[in-house]
Amino acid sequence: MLLTTKTSSTGFWVCPFANNSREKPLKNGTSQALPGNPYSRTSPYSRTSLFPSSVSHISIGLPPKASVLSANRTRNIRSIDNNTEIIKFCELGNLDKAMELLFEYEKLKLDARTYCSLLQLCAEYKSIDNGREVHSIIERNGIETGGVLESKLVFMYVSCGHLIEGRRIFDRSESKNVFLWNLLMNEYAKIGNFKESVNMYYRMLELGIEMNSYTFSCILKCFAALENVVEGEKVHEKILKLGFGSYSAVVNSLISFYFKCGRSGSGQKLFDEMRERDVVSWNSMISGYVANGLAVKGIKFFMEMLRLGVDVDLASMVSALAACASIKDMLLSRAIHAYAVKAGFDLKMPFTNTLLDVYAKCGDMDGAVCVFENMGEPNIVSWTSMIAGYAREGLSYEAIELFHEMRKKGIDPDVFTVTSTLHACACSGSLESGMKVHAYIKEKNMETNLVVSNALMDMFAKCGSMENAEAVFSQMPAKDIVSWNTMIGGYSKNSLANEALSLFAKMQPHKRPDDVTVTCILPACASLAALDRGQEIHGYILRNGLSSDHFVVNALIDMYVKCGALVMAKLLFRKILSKDLVSWTIMIAGYAMHGFGTEAVATFRKMRQAGIEPDEVSFISILYACSHSGLLDAGWRFFNIMRNEFYIEPNLEHYTCMVDLLARAGKLSKAYKFIKGMPIEPDATVWGALLCGCRIYHDVDMAEKVAEHVFELEPENTGHYVLLANIYAEAEKWEEVKRLQEKIGKRALKKNSGCSWIEIRGKAYIFVSGDSAFPQAKSIKFLLRDLRRKMNELGHSSKQKYALINEDEIEKEVALCGHSEKLAMAFGVLSLPPSKTIRVTKNLRICGDCHEMAKFISKMLGREILLRDSSRFHHFKDGSCSCRG
DNA sequence: ATAGGGTTAG
């Protein structure tokens, strides 16, 4: 992060910590419908196994006999017999035969109970086609559908998954019973349309429909999903008033409602007051505590069940195992596994999947693979747990591979699978893989899912494609706080600070910024040096009680450091009770940027005294501090400590700091040898640090040697050419300057124009080099001309060299580059009261002439100037600068 | 005839 020589870096100023690693655990918003239970009483399988012989006998032997019989009866008798006949087949579960008979007697008015039996069977077999046939025959025969028959019709449609048609009949019906209300409410809840369930509940209240335990279970689930504690509590009151307070299913629903709303205390109280607890009550306690992050407490309930001899079932085992996963307790989960083998639950899918997830969450992917390969047929949950496990472990490639493999096996990834896979794509920054997942999402119409869209945006943002993220964001019909935070954080991380700020402003009318939002937006303020905006956000943090959060405080300190308000940063830093590695590192980097090397070293020492181990980032900070304060020996010491005591391999940024340190100390050939001896390939930044040193010490020969490397590695960067041209100019080698001018002209290099800005009363004024349209142009030009004249009069060596290279004809834009900071400073002098520090920020490094001019202004006009360039802060006061030249 | 607890995620 802390680079000294990047000529065009704004990335340096983006906070490296605060927002990046920010990942909040979030509550499960949606619940999925469980797959149909093949052992249920109404399932076709149980029927065939219960009556194997009679079913086959009837379907082969009876039909001809039945039709012969019916042909011989009189119409009246026949219709009675027809009813019994059809009902008989229905009871035997032979829908095909029953339907065949129905078609045969199509024109006859059969009994309502016959149609009921048929519809019941259609519902059980989920046979919508037959169900529709029955319905149309009923209508064609003009059968009265009031009462039970109407109810059955609704039941049939709903059971077959045709909720809308069921609802239509329900709405027309005049005899709605509580059963139908419950049925529909539940169905809406199952598909996640909790709002409609709630609407129906309120309608029931209005109409005075007598509610029962089913109603309450359902509505509590809905209010829990909608996180509406207030309404849920009203339901609780109603339950007590109507005397359902002793129904275990109802109380169990209340317990899980309170746990889902994060009110463990209320759940516990209900459990304590229960007279008759069943397995579900116990299981609700285990899962409730686990979901609220108190896994150990959940396990205690499981143990208590065993101690009291309560019958433990599959759900108890699964919850207990999930608790193990959340606290990564492999030992206990092995014990539970052994117990499950004895009890015979170990082969059940939910159990195996949870076991797999324990291994994956404990980081033991080999163990997870073992479970995965030994289970019969892994289902979608198994695959997803594997993918999520690989993604968590940083094995993105394996995760993405599995995604494609499961598709080949014919298993359709669902929303859980795609979000996990997207996470893997995001972590590895593989846009190409992410695009493939996106294509699949579009194909399956999953973009409507909020979580999926959020994961998509996160993936695009982390892969550096904010255009794609924006496209997803703009077409989302409903955005939650995560959506906004993902986009704002994405802009911040991708150095699009202005976009981050404007989206932050747009968000306000829709959603209240939370702790994550402010940690996402503060780095944007930091990178723009937008102190006023940062302070506003600080105010918001205080007003909303967000300052107890570690991430928030660290981001806040980082913002103050980078906006040049070191005093404020120190104040906040001192107030933190438990400073973590990030807080210390930010402060060390802060001292470094402001040129307080000794303070940085002292802070580093205090950090180690506090028992905090430095990592590679904190070593970058301290090395940067040493190089910028000329602490050569200390720098070497830290470099060696890092390698020998902490076994951290230096990376390019560490090497850059060291080269910078040597180069500034004038040890140019030592620096050259140092680079040559690096075990990793040096980049343009490393060589660039040496080139800067060559300029300070006017070493043209070395500069030429170094420049070759720099130009080769970054041929497009104008900054390097200008730097070498300046070195030539200062050595008065005009031939070479000219040669370089031609080179720059020929290459038609893309301009890297300098730009400076100053914030006055919350508004940023931007000055771009080469642009003559700026506010108060006349006064600024007059002031600068005046200052220049005085500088010359007072014999300030207004170096002709700078003037030559800057104002000559290299190229107009390049030549003017470096003057924007002068304009901004002059604007500050004109616009701010004398007591106020002039704070200017520049995207590139400050030019030498401007540096002289700033010193002069500080002395002549008695103004303090704080200028932040791409590398550090320059604090001008009484004619000198904190960077010591 | 409809429910309450149980596996995977941003």
UniProtKB/TrEMBL annotation:
One of its GO terms (biological process) is RNA modification. Pfam families: DYW_deaminase, E_motif, PPR, PPR_2. GO terms for molecular function: mRNA binding; zinc ion binding. Keywords: Repeat. The lineage of its organism: Eukaryota, Viridiplantae, Streptophyta, Embryophyta, Tracheophyta. This is DYW domain-containing protein. InterPro entries: DYW_dom (IPR032867), E_motif (IPR046848), PPR_At4g14850-like_plant (IPR046960), PPR_rpt (IPR002885), TPR-like_helical_dom_sf (IPR011990). Residues 795-884 form the DYW domain. It comes from the Eukaryota. Belongs to the PPR family. PCMP-H subfamily. PROSITE patterns: PPR (PS51375).
